[in-house]
Amino acid sequence: MTGLRARQLAQRRTALRARSRALRARAALQSRSLEPVLTWADRVQTAWQWLRGWPREVVLPLAAASGLWMARKPSRFLSVPLRLLSVWRLWQRLTAGRRA
Question: Where does the source fall among the domains of life (predicted)?
């Protein structure tokens, strides 16, 4: 009786390991679609760290100049949030597709 149970458990373990390998391979394949987004996020993070390395005396005038540039053409205030909104909607569609 115990030999039969041990064989069943060994078969179950083998099947679970095979399923786990298949799921890992599938996850790796599906995660490739996120590479451009993650690359972009890495660039933003690197730029932020680079910017934080600069002294305030340099960064504040650059930020002020950027603000003035944005204020000079107010349509930029709309275009950037609209782009972010479209990216967010795309993300929502992609995550909804993965859940289904």
Answer: Bacteria
Query: CA 21, 22, 26 angle in degrees (round to 5)?
Result: 120
Q: Please answer whether residues 82 and 90 qualify as being in contact, where contact means their C-beta atoms are separated by less than 8 angstroms.
A: no
| DSSP annotation of 74 | T
Other Cβ atoms within 10 Å of 70 Cβ, number: 13
- Residues 39 and 46: beta-carbon distance below 8 Å: no
Q: Give the domain ranges of the chain.
A: 54-100
For residue range 9-55, list pLDDT tens digits in order: 999 999 999 999 999 999 999 888 888 888 989 988 998 888 788 78
Say what the pTM is.
0.40
